[in-house]
Amino acid sequence: MVDVQHWLAALPPGLICLLVGAVIGVESMGIPLPGEIVLVSAALLAATGAVGPEWVAAAAATGAILGDSVGYAVGRRGGRPLLERLGRRFPKHLGPAHLARAELSFARHGVWAVFFGRFVALLRILAGPLAGALRVPYRRFLIANAAGGLVWAFGTTYLLFYLGRAAEHWLKDISWVGLVLAVLAGVVSTVWLRRRAKRLHPLDAPDTPDAVPAADR
C-alpha cells in the first residue's frame, strides 16, 4: 500500500481523483482490482495536503455507484453465464465457491447485501453484476448501492484524513509511525461494519446454492 501511495503522490490532484474513481469503478463492475487500497492511499495523501479529501471521497463514491450500476446492467443482460465466465477468468477471486457465497448472501439479505457488500471484498466486486443477474429491482438496488457507496467512500476518506492529520501533528519526526497508526485506526474503525457484513458472507456456504434465490427478497 505504501508503494501505491508513493506512486499516487507523483500525480497531480485531479489525476489522483480520476484514478481513484476509475479503479473503484472498474472493480465495482466485477473486475478484481485493489479499489480499497487505492482509496486508503489517496485518503492518507489527502492528510498531507496533496489533494482535497472531499474530492477523493466524491471520486470514490462516484466510481462505486456508477461502477455498480454498470455491473448491474451487464449482469442483467448476461445473467449467470456471465458470472460463470468471470469465475473462469478470475478463479481466485470469483470462482464457483465465491459465487455461491455471494448468492447465499443475496438470498438471505436481499438488497442489504448490496449496502454491506461495499465493506466486503468479494461482494464489493460481485454486488452489481449479481444483483442484475438475479433481477433485483433496479430502484431498490440503486438506493442500497448509493447509500453503501457514500458511507464507504466518505467514511473511509474522512476517517483516515483526520487520523492522518492528527498523526502528522503529533508525530512529525516519526512519519512512518503516523502512517502505520492511521492505517491501523482505519482498519479498527470498520470492525463493526465488517462484523455485520460477515453475516452476509458466510464462510461455510456450499460450493453451489440449492436454488436460485429470490431477487427482491
In terms of DSSP E residues, the strand content is: under 5%
Largest sheet: none
How much is the average pLDDT?
Answer: 77
Q: How many domains comprise the coordinates?
A: 1
The helicity comes to over 70%
**What distance separates the N and C termini?**
38 Å
Rg from alpha-carbon coordinates: 18 Å
User: What's the number of helices?
Assistant: 11
Given the C-alpha coordinates, what overall shape results? globular
**H-E order:** HHHHHHHHHHH
Number of strands: 0
Uncertain residue ranges? 171-175, 203-217
Q: Output the structural class.
A: mainly alpha
Summarize the entry for a quick read.
Belongs to the DedA family. With 217 residues, the chain is mostly helical. The radius of gyration is 18 Å and the shape is globular.
Give an overview in words.
With 217 residues, this protein is mainly alpha-helical. It has one domain. Helices cover 77% and strands 0% of the residues. The longest helix has 37 residues. The radius of gyration is 18 Å and the shape is globular. It starts with a helix and ends in a 19-residue tail after the last helix.
List the helices and strands and how they pair.
Layout: H1 2-9, H2 13-28, H3 35-47, H4 53-89, H5 91-94, H6 96-109, H7 112-117, H8 121-133, H9 138-170, H10 175-189, H11 191-198
Helix pairs in contact: 1-3, 2-3, 2-4, 3-4, 3-9, 4-8, 4-9, 6-8, 9-10
Give me some keywords for this one.
globular, single chain, 217 residues, mainly alpha, disordered C terminus
